[in-house]
Request: fold
Amino acid sequence: MADGELASKREPTTVVSPDIGLVNKQTIQVGPRWAVIGIFLILLFGALYLSRDFVLPVVFALLFMLVLSPIVRVAKRRLGLWEPFTAGLLVFGTSLLILGSFYAFSGPIAQIAENTPRYVEAVNREVSVLRERFMTVREAGQQAKEATANGGGATPPEDVVISGPSLLGNMAAIVPRIGASIGFALIFLFFLLSSGSLFYRKTIETFSSLSDKKRALSIAFEIETELSRYLFAITAINLCLGLAIGSAMALVGLPMPAVFGALAFVLNFIPYLGAIIGIGLVGMVGLTEFGTFPDAIFPPLLYLAITSIEGQFITPILVGRRLRMNAAAVFLSVAFWGWIWGVTGMFLAVPLMVCIKIIASYFDSLHSFVGFLAADEADEPASPPT
Reply:
């Protein structure tokens, strides 16, 4: 019976076409849906990885267009300003801000790059001391003496000499590429903003049904609202965090505290990993300046305390319950986009996650995925007293 049913499913069927009459149509066995989706995702992410030099500036421009478009519309509606004029002001102001930041911190960053061999030497010295102690515990007699002789001395000079020029050479090669990508993103952003609502109209016209047009328009405006709210709130929080970190590093006597405050502001856009990188940098510089591990441990602990207060109390209250994300999903998103697009992908991970969550919330079949991305309401902090 089962064989007969299987055979009947494979028999050709006859359909009637209004154009050419009777047509024999052979039944095609389609593979599992999950396999097709998996192949599509593999091809998509492979294409995103290979075309990252072009895709990344486009993604940045689109995200900033979603954030800044409300400003352009308000300026036209209330002040009567021409869209290209407002777009030019926004893009020109952003360019001045970026160039001014590079100019202000180019000297301290170059000084840090020049001192990198000292930082590496200090870290290697402490690692050698720790290695010596572990070897002493594991081995006895002559092996412990050899380990002490090999590990207790200074770090081989060739390691220090190679590290400094290599870092400077990499920076010299990367900076022109970064500048070209930023310039392309800003020019594309200008055209997107100066066109007003043309980008939305052209996107909506690609849909055939009225319901799809309404859904696309609702998605676009909700992404605008939520992404603008998130980025402005996070930027304000990170600015205060940078001021707090810079002041704290100045109090403990760490050199160039303004640089560490600026780094804290930038790195905090990367959830979790940004704080870890900042703590590592502060610890490495503190180890070089203060000489011993017990004296150098206080600056990174202070950095950790400030970022913990910000992450556990300030951000959850200011960002709001609607935009809070599952911590595991956020970490996975940062790791994934960092793997695809490097450090730039880490900065884009959370904004992209916000967009994906909003888009998925409009489809019933993806509600379980939205539930995975959202934070658990049981873990939400109580609302502050009014």
Notes: Residues 1-30, 157-165, 378-386 have pLDDT under 50 and may be disordered.
